[in-house]
Design a protein that fits this description.
By secondary structure, the chain is α/β, with parallel strands linked by helices. The chain is built from 13 helices and eleven strands. It binds flavin mononucleotide.
Length: 372
């Protein structure tokens, strides 16, 4: 028995599993290729990358796989002005720079993402699916990608967002539950009121839209995959589960932190990037948050730029206390396996979970008496 759905067949996959696009390090072409070659859908994240680098990485991915893969970027969001007084934000990071042997941090420049050039590189990437998060893509871009035959996927954290994406013309929706690792995709309202768990979010989005839904957030093994399909999803998108893989580009300290973490050790924070994102609690997160009343967290993308040197040095020096340890609430279920083996294991576990449910279905549950 193999688990398949109309979406899985449409995308030419063997398993209802998407590798979550993971920008900022974990999402390498090697990881995406290994996942695609194993019959799931690998994704190349290109947020934060210039067009030239996007071209280079997608070429590397095409060298490693002839199977379908996806590409992912952030929807363009207006950059706010840099707050006039950024001294408190610099001060808290300066302490950490001192400990890492870095010179004092500098005020970040308003480095707008070169969206237009980046999008041209996306169109030429050879990806068969294009997904995005943080909002909506302009209509002309959606049409340009469709004209290339790309399958378009938006990210929703509420039913309202899923409906906005459907109206914008996407082909499928990722339902990102509040358990999910890293950035919240929320774009229609404040993030606090959009923290809906995967179990509640998926069936409500499935009922509201007439598009395939991909469940994401806290799914770590075959049981989670079968549960998501039972809720009406046609595939799952898994991030944290793939971070410890040898093909992932996450620093070793990040991989080790995930393998050692428990379900109650993550929280959503703005500390590292200025946007809410879930990660394992560490000294940098707690320190920046503790000082945050004094305006020490800049808005995205400035805070992201401000903490970049600290995170880079921490990765090189193996100092997890200064890294953004992005992870979802399913951390305790993480394992260190090569990506192809993990995909095979997930598929086998999902089959076992289905068999177990089938066996349960064979048990006769006594009916309640009509007189009770
Ligand atoms: C390290 C990391 C980086 C991520 N980067 C992106 C990204 O670039 N684009 C995106 O659409 N989602 C991104 N996500 C979110 C995932 O798509 C997905 O919603 C999340 O990983 C699901 O939760 P899980 O980590 O519990 O599986 C990222 C997740 C992680 C853990």
């Amino acid at each position: 028995m193999s688990l398949t759905t109309p979406l899985v067949r449409k995308l030419g996959l063997q398993h209802p599993i998407f590798l979550a696009p993971m920008a900022g390090g974990p999402g390498t072409p090697e990881l995406a290729a290994a996942v695609s070659n194993a019959g799931a859908l690998g994704f190349l994240p290109i947020a934060y990358l210039p067009a030239a680098r996007t071209r280079e990485l997608s070429a590397r991915l095409r060298e490693h796989t002839g199977r379908p893969f996806g590409i992912n970027l952030f929807a363009p969001v207006p950059t706010p002005p840099l707050p006039e007084d950024s001294a408190a934000a610099l001060e808290v990071i300066a302490q950490f720079h001192g400990e890492l042997g870095l010179s004092a941090p500098k005020l970040p420049e308003a480095a707008a993402e070169p969206f237009d050039e980046q999008f041209d590189a996306v169109l030429e990437s050879g990806a068969s699916a294009l997904s995005f998060t943080f909002g909506l893509l302009p209509n002309d871009r959606i049409q340009a990608a469709k004209a290339r035959g790309m399958f378009i996927i938006g990210t929703a954290t509420t039913v309202e967002e899923a409906l906005l994406l459907e109206r914008a013309g996407v082909d499928a929706v990722v339902a990102q539950g509040s358990e999910a690792g890293a950035h919240r995709g929320t774009f229609a309202r404040d993030f606090e009121s959009s923290m809906i768990g995967t179990m509640a979010l998926v069936p409500q989005i499935v009922d509201a839209v007439s598009l395939p839904v991909i469940a994401s957030g806290g799914i770590m093994d075959g049981r989670g995959i079968v549960a998501a399909l039972a809720l009406g999803a046609q595939a799952v998108q898994m991030g944290t589960a793939f971070i410890p893989c040898p093909e992932s580009g996450a620093p070793e300290a990040h991989k080790a932190a995930i393998l050692a973490a428990a379900e109650n050790q993550t929280r959503v924070t703005r500390a590292f990037s200025g946007r809410p994102a879930r990660g394992i609690i560490n000294r940098a997160m707690a320190g920046i948050e503790a000082a945050s009343d004094t305006g020490s967290v800049l808005p995205y993308p400035y805070q992201n730029a401000l903490t970049r040197a600290m995170r880079g040095a921490a990765a090189k020096q193996g100092r997890p206390e200064f890294l953004s340890l992005w992870a979802g609430q399913g951390v305790r279920l993480a394992r260190r396996l090569p990506a192809a083996e993990l995909v095979a294991r997930l598929a086998a576990e999902a089959e076992t979970a289905m068999h177990r449910l089938g066996a349960l279905g064979g048990v006769t549950v006594p009916r309640a008496s009509s007189t009770n």
